[in-house]
Amino acid sequence: MSLFQLFLVFVYVGMFTIGGGLVAITLMQQELVGRGLITAERFYNMVAISESTPGPIGINMATYIGYEMYGIPGGIIATFGTVLPSLVVIIVIARYFGKFQDKPLVKAAFFGLRAGTTGMIAVAAFQVILVAVLSLDSFSRTGRWQDIADWRAFAFFCIIFVLQVKIDWHPVFFIILGAVFGIIFL
């Protein structure tokens, strides 16, 4: 893949990322892992690192992937490719949205966009769970049901899920807790 092709992939990702960075992850995964440019495990390690760093995850992922593939120029090109469509669209929307926001067709379109992007975010979350909590590749190698999940990762996932729902702590706390858990138990 050339640097220009990398730019086009991330323009595509940026163009169809409606709903936030988790949707971008789904598109990046389809484009990069699907083409065999990076492995699924490497991709989800990049997701974990990008989630743990400040800033929007879609931009963090684009910068990280571009950097991994082509160094600093790749990081800049991938980031610019991701941001460019949003920049153009937001300029157009800022100019005309006030005139059209109350139209029934516009309201209906946004209703559908919310539902569709929620589904895409759910797919991204499910794919991360498959890699982070379930060990389907271990199961496929051994055929033993005991190997289908890493019980430590699953237990920690459940604990964090419950804590996040019940306690209003800052997400940084959970990120740090996850890193400490990984260092201690793996």
UniProtKB/TrEMBL annotation:
One of its GO terms (cellular component) is plasma membrane. Keywords: Cell membrane, Membrane, Transmembrane, Transmembrane helix. The keyword Cell membrane applies. It is a multi-pass membrane protein. The keyword Repeat does not apply. It comes from the Bacteria. The chain crosses the membrane at residues 6-28, 76-97, 117-136, 169-185. It is found in: Cell membrane. GO terms for molecular function: chromate transmembrane transporter activity. Belongs to the chromate ion transporter (CHR) (TC 2.A.51) family. This is Chromate transporter. The lineage of its organism: Bacteria, Pseudomonadati, Spirochaetota, Spirochaetia, Spirochaetales.
